[in-house]
Write the structure tokens for this entry.
Amino acid sequence: MIAAAGENNELGKDNDLLWHLPDDFKRFKQLTTGHHIIMGRKTFETFPKPLPNRIHVVITRNKNYKKEGALVVHNLEEALKIAKDDLQPFIIGGGEIYKMGLPVADKIELTRVHGSFTDADTFFPEFSADKWKLTSELEHQKDERHKYSFVYQTWVRK
């Protein structure tokens, strides 16, 4: 899984992010390029067009949904089956898809944004340090291009 979340697990509001962090976008691109990215329909529809060099697997309940550039499935199991030959597929959101994915994920690439965003309407699921181990952290300070400081964290299932 890969996500950026605020201090209280905030992800977004009205199908949009709560921040603009160019270096986090670069990291997302670096990590996900060449892989399957699994997402919900609403997340997919926030992209102006499919992201280059990635296979888009879109989960929706709508049996008639079709979009160019997307492999459409109707549950997480189907999505994972499509991505079975990818050594590192990524679940990229939104909130409901993260909740479904957390029990089967073995790694979380989490950008923890230092801030509290009280108007959020979508959240990353809670996960416990009893089940997950933090294996790396890299701080990124606030600067002229980044309104918030943040930390890249890699968590692996114990």
